[in-house]
Amino acid sequence: MEQITISNIKIDVVRKDIKNIHLAVYPPTGRVRIAAPLRVNEDAIRLFTISKLGWIKRHQRKFEGQERIPPREYKNRESHYFQGRRYLLNIIEADAPPKVVLKNKTYIDLYLRPKTPIAKRHEIMKEWYRKELKKIIPKLIEKWEKRMNLKVKEWQVKLMKIKWGSCNIEKKRIWLNLELTKKPIHCLEYIIVHEMVHYLERHHNERFLYYMDTYLPNWKQLKTELNKLPVSHADWRY
Question: What is the percent of the chain where pLDDT is above 90?
Answer without folding.
Answer: 73
